[in-house]
Amino acid sequence: MLRFLAGRLVQSALILLGITVITFGLTFLIPADPVRMIAGRSATPETVESIRHQLGLDQPVPVQYLRYLGNLVQGDLGRSYVQKAEVTELIASRLPATLQLLAAAIFFQLLLGLPAGIYSATRRNRTSDKVVMILSFIGVSAPQFVVGLLLLYVFAHKLNLFPLGGYGTLSHVVLPAVTLGVTVAGWYSRMSRSSMIEVLRQDYIRTARAKGLSEWRVVLVHGLRNAILPIIAMIGIDIGLYMQGIVVVEAVFGWPGIGQLAWQAIQRIDIPIIMAVTLVAATGIVIGNLLADIATSLVDPRVRHR
Amino acid sequence: MFRTFAAATAAAAFVFATAMAQAEPKQGGQMVVTYKDDISTLDPAIGYDWQNWSMIKSLFNGLMDYKPGTTELITDLAESYTVSDDGLGYTFKLRQGVKFHNGRELVASDIKYSIERAVNPKTQSPGQGFFWQIKGYDDMVSNGAGELSGITTPDDYTVVFELSQPDATFLQIVAINFSFAVPREEIEKYGEDFGRNPIGTGAYRMTDWTLGQRVVFERNRDYFRAGSPYLDKIIFEVGQDPQVALLRLKRGEVDVLGDPIPSANFLTEKNDPANKGLIVKGDLLHTGYITMNVTEPPFDSKLVRQAVNMAIAKERIVRIINGRGVIANQPLPPAMPGYDPNYKGYAFDPAKAREMLAEAGYPDGFETELYVMNTDPNPRIAQAVQQDLAEIGIKASIKSLAQSTVIAAGGEGTAPMLWSGGMAWIADYPDPSNFYGPILGCGGAAPGGWNWAKYCNEEIDALAAKADSMAGPDQAAERIDLWRQIFLKIMDDAPWVPVFNEIRFAMHSARIGGKDVYFADPIHIPVNYEAVYANDVE
């Protein structure tokens, strides 16, 4: 088990290193000169060059990369070009909001997705199954900014049930979390449906039925216990799926998380923030995957002996 | 009958009450302003975007300022000033008893320190170049001198500037944000983070900054202008989607939309009788224009450039932007001194334009490229221009690209035509000089400069230099007149097609009052936070 863990950790570290190379490289493809952005439109060429030199952007690219990496190891993500603040501080102040939203979204996603999938599995190929699957398909396909604005308009503006965006109380978190959760719930209902169908075919389910257990006991106790394992493991992997949604949803709802930070930074080409958020998101995905691997290996010994 | 009468009385009473409220604003109350983007730095030497520009103005002061809602200069930290006969010496007497938010009194050395800080290359101030005329500037910028020899402080309440050459815009320069007074001890304490811990002498003090959520300003009770400002508190809520902010304004949770009213809602809201008096408009010191690179064929031909000027249906373009602008026929916007209201410009006349093209040697037109920034409405405007050009035989292909790419193409001179939308010049200070040097003068035509037409007429450059050396107060009218002539001469050369001057439409709640122009102030863009007030103060 320890060897397995160590191997996975080394792998993760290598992946992250690769990601730093890619994000660092991408910044050179962005058609914007950060120095000109800092210097402003009225700057003279001398001012521009002086700032370039002070930022060390006149040095060779490998030197710049090594310096970036060196700072990174010390937890220094650089300084924002537009906001003129430490990126580490900007991210640290916003990470709790994002984690809170993520947790709430996962809650809603399971709340909506699992029952829908189980229900569909037990009604396989009947009309109700098809209706649920069509709904889940719509959930997966609907653009999140549309869902978000729609929910805001109906439940906040018209019905006055929730605040119009913002952050703070529990009622603030409901609409953005539902918006995020709906998309992923679509995937989960499909996954839990197929997982459940798989389980319901097993011999022990037939045995359970033969024992004369009630159908809901068969499904919820014997079926679900086995069907849910791959789903729980998936949550870790899904953090990646959430990262894209978070950018849009946080922007629409005025949720002060790192997705909103990224959205603003992209619009204003604030390269250090874009790099940092990408890195944090990638780290989240890598950790999620790592946890999923560990969870799976705990449940299924075959994985860790492979 | 009676009901109508009662209604009329009620309406009259309401109007009267509103008029009363406007006649006697009271101090107190608060206001919520929303922005889509986070506030960037509030350091006056660094901040240079339209969002923090006005916020900085209400936290800090300079020697000079502008009368609210106008472009008229008034003294601010200075009590009075004198200009030497040769225009090279400016002596400012400071107000006494002005205090920084940390309680210390402002003295002359603070003014010297603050301007030197903006010029010091270590500060990386985008405003550095504005102070070129102060003696010692080159030494400080290039040779590492620690101070500007041209600023001296004979006593605590006197600042003397010595210029290396006369500059008629100098009073504007000491009214610009980059010159605002900052306390040295706080800069040394906070270093680069001063921008998040701003301490000035201004009407408001910043009391809270919750990253990504809100910035709070509270009234500076020791402000040197008695009775100002009106509001006790301004809460800036950031990260607010403009659509959502609009809904919140209707619900009474928000008082002022800091961002423009979303295009999709603009006409509905503007035509909604419920919003009467709440949507106000003001002039920006802005012109939207098409540049033509005069250094390369076919636009090296004046006839071709004039023909293009006659081919563009500007009215249609103003319709594309929902009427949020007025048609322009010269580089200067109407609110800028030197604008010529009598100038007629080039009339829209495609037939004549075709003839002129033929005369210039392009009877069948030509092919060219039009660079444009890729965010709405700019590509749509470019398409309108493309159609207009096609009418006279010019086939323009549209290069719709990211803002920085378009600016780079303009700066390097690789864009034959460029629509300025989304990156057009908005004046730093209300003087025609600021609309010439960087964008139409020979200096701005260097690689990387903002003169995208690469237009450089040395005769005009000489006239501009002459105009800016006319620093005497008695020469002001003559000087503006000269600038007017300069811009008409430029229009004769036609390096640009001036298309429209943007009008800013701002929306505020009924709770907040103040002259319309305070919500769309030409200097305190976008809102003059010092001049507006709450109507519901008891």
Overall description:
The complex is a heterodimer of chains A (306) and B (538). Chain A is mostly helical and 306 residues long. Chain A is 80% helix and 0% strand. Chain A is built from 13 helices and no strands. Chain A has helices at 2-29, 34-39, 45-55, 61-73, 87-122, 127-141, 144-158, 170-200, 203-210, 215-253, 258-267, 271-299, 301-305. In chain A, helix 7 packs across helix 10. Chain A is globular and about 85 Å long. With 538 residues, chain B is an alpha+beta fold. Chain B contains 16 helices and 20 strands. In chain B, strands 12, 13, 14, 15, 16, 17 and 18 form a seven-stranded mixed β-sheet that branches. In chain B, helix 9 (302-311) packs antiparallel against helix 11 (350-359) and helix 15 packs antiparallel against helix 16 (476-493). The longest helix of chain B has 22 residues, at 2-23. Chain B starts with a helix and ends with a strand. The chains are: A mainly alpha (306), B alpha+beta (538). At the A-B interface, helix 2, helix 3, helix 5, helix 7 and helix 10 of A face helix 7 and helix 13 of B.
